Amino acid sequence: MSILSILEPASSTTPRAAVTRLTTGTIPATVGSDLLVPLADGRVTDYANFDHGASAPCLESVRASVEAALPSYASVHRGNGYASRITTQWYERARAEVHSFVGARADDQVIFTRQTTDALNLLSHAVPADATVIVFESEHHAALLPWGEERTVRLAAPASAGETVAAVANALRAAPEGPRLVVVTGASNVTGEIFPIAELAAVAKAHGARICLDAAQLAPHRIVDIAELDVDWVALSGHKLYAPYGAGALIGRADWLDAADPYLYGGGATTSVTGDGVVWATGPSRHEGGSPNVIGAIALASACATISRNRDAIEQHERSLLARLRTGLAQIAEVTTYSIFGAEADRVGTVCFTIKGLSSTLVSAALSAEYGIGVRDGKFCAHPLVGHLLADAPEHGTAVRASLGLGTTREHVDRLVGAVRSLATNGLRAEYEDTDHGCQPADDPRDLHAPRIW
């Protein structure tokens, strides 16, 4: 196989959605699926990863693409050397792959960023100064905070999909004249619930507003199609998409982006620099100043291609595991799970819960030390939403989040449910204390220090 064929551009004649629905595919393999972790009782077990919502493991296909690209890695654009030409082609083909992955329109731009947070801050930089931005308090901080308090209308967490749409419609009717932008998550990073994106886009368009979709938690699990949803921008992260090489993307309309000052001043963002002034580039280059993260872009594109080829198998795998997890937790009387829209709402593989009588920090620490299970505890960079969900549980200031994905197995789900049941009924097996490395058993025999790997 030619090295130039690693990232071929997507076909311009076959709709992306049709390709993903015609091929059931397989469950893609992840790096670290054989990771063994020590337990506090001296045993060793395979790692049960329920922290995909924070960062997903690397796909084996992504690692292969990166390893194939490294020997000829060079700086992109304006280079006549063989390596630079090859790398430039990969970089631009990666842009085309991401464009196809989200079903973007022909004139939509793909701007590579560091991650979703960076992408949304870039868009905030480009939003006209007199714009009104409408956002729910249920958003991740990355979508909640960049817009500036003076122009942000923050809506209370909705109780249903219908209330979500009605609240946005009311806010748009009350907004002053001028540019308006609705910002909404695709899937909650706290509960996994999917927001009514197409309906919100329709309401936005009916009021002359634009809409940005934070797809960080949605894109790894469900199809995102800009044209079908009729959204203006999509932001996503490689590290959520099994490509942890430091790249994300903002994809969407060009006009506000081309009208804004460059996000990063420097090389690559200009077409001319003279004593009389600077002429800035338009298109993605305008906001990709400096040497870009080429390897990150290649990794992101490789993940997009792998997920697209295996989308049906991925969805089936995750739906099955999520149903098993939710059913198991529902049978434990001491466990409370939390939801924005209600138990029947469609969601990706994330569950937020608490255990009566135990803090989320203790639960997280015990699941790790006693069962080899990785979850997340806290407020998940969504403080207003967690406060809202836990309003009726004053004994719990934080919660536990279990987020599954391609690194999760059926045995892992059963282990988590069994561990939660044991913690709820029998309590902790050890005494725990706060240390410089977090909460862990007193006299913990595990070696939790990470030696240098370079």
Structure, described:
Helix content is 35%, strand content 17%. Helix 2 (60-69) packs antiparallel against helix 10 (294-309), helix 6 packs parallel to helix 7 and helix 12 crosses helix 14. It has helices spanning 16-22, 60-69, 82-101, 116-126, 141-144, 161-174, 197-206, 226-229, 255-259, 294-309, 311-330, 360-371, 383-389, 410-426; strands at 36-38, 44-46, 48-49, 109-113, 132-136, 152-155, 180-185, 210-214, 233-237, 248-252, 270-274, 277-280, 335-337, 350-355, 373-374, 376-378, 399-403, 432-435, 438-441. It has 14 helices and 19 strands. The chain is globular, with a radius of gyration of 23 Å. The two termini are 32 Å apart. Residues 1-23 have low confidence and may be disordered. With 454 residues, the protein is α/β, with parallel strands linked by helices.
